[in-house]
Amino acid sequence: MSTHRFDARTPARTLPEDDSPPGRSRRAGLTRRSLLAGGIGALALTGGSAAWAYDRFLREEVDVEDVSAQEAASGVAAGTLVPADGVYSSTGYTSSTTTLEITRSATGSGATALAWYAAEVTVSDARLIRSAFAEDDFGRNITEMPSAIAERAGAVLAINGDYYGFRDTGIVIRSGIAYRDEPAREGLCFFADGRIAVYDETATTADQLIADGAWNTLSFGPAVLVDGAVPDGIEDVEVDTNIGNHSIQGEQPRTAIGVIGENHLVMLVVDGRSEGYSRGVGLPELGGILLDLGCTSGYNLDGGGSSVMLLDGEMVSDPLGRGRERATSDILYVAG
């Protein structure tokens, strides 16, 4: 295995410009929406309810507009100052409140080649780990390129989130505000005191989590590392089985959060589906990578073509070996 420092803000390869048509969100290749559209067409051909499928999986539903303004008005982040003394390096960032360093690791060759990017992050205030929504709106089927979301948020480092907008279940708390309270699965909670914990959504509520100090929650999963061990059975877990969605199993591009300690975490992106560059990993192997990075717990986020890591607005990872990102509904980012 080779692990080395690199210029994280220079993509590993140069490819043609995305030739997808202009619109609210530019995307590359087959997107989740295009796959869904194919499924809706099949429904129409078989007499299914294409109108229902369109309303559920394609039509944008804005529940909360201008989220940033509402968060500012709520005062939840009052006293959390983003420093003005931050300095980027070729592999990270340092300020009076934050240190982060990205390493690229690679193993194997040909069909066994694997590449991943790990950002070790330490912050002085847990509220510097934040989330941002596509188009700055909360709702279903609202998407935007991660780099555009990150630029608007002023993100130092960003990864894709849980793609909350693709489903209508899960507990969604962002910056201390509850947006959805539909418990369904194993979630991840970032607390304002620096703790990060995997929890059972069905055993609590959004209000109770906020009372306990929740800052952000993510709803995807599963946990791939618990108390320093990879759990049994995670290779059988499914998150979504609805129309147009794929299994989360098998060797895939991955995004994950690993926890080393309070205010000390790893943001991990594994590239995949690109023979000779990176094959991707299964969930047990993902947990093993986080364990090797010094984490005691770890949680799987949305993956596939959605997986991405950005430093100072530029892609670090190359999720499908194409040098392009895919639109999603949210990012998790380091503010400064």
Write up what this structure looks like.
Residues 1-10 have a biased composition (Basic and acidic residues). It holds the Pfam family NAGPA. This is Exopolysaccharide biosynthesis protein. Residues 1-30 are annotated as: Disordered. The chain has one domain (2-10, 25-334). Helix 1 packs antiparallel against helix 2. Residues 8-31 have low confidence and may be disordered. It has helices spanning 32-45, 50-57, 67-74, 146-153, 206-211, 283-292; strands at 2-4, 61-64, 87-89, 92-94, 98-107, 114-123, 129-133, 138-140, 157-160, 170-174, 177-182, 186-191, 196-200, 214-219, 223-225, 254-261, 264-270, 297-300, 309-311, 314-315, 330-334. The strands form five sheets. Strands 1, 3, 4, 5, 6, 15, 16, 17 and 18 form a nine-stranded antiparallel beta sheet that branches. A hairpin with a 2-residue loop joins strand 3 (87-89) and strand 4. It is globular, with a radius of gyration of 19 Å. By secondary structure, it is α+β, with helices and mostly antiparallel strands.
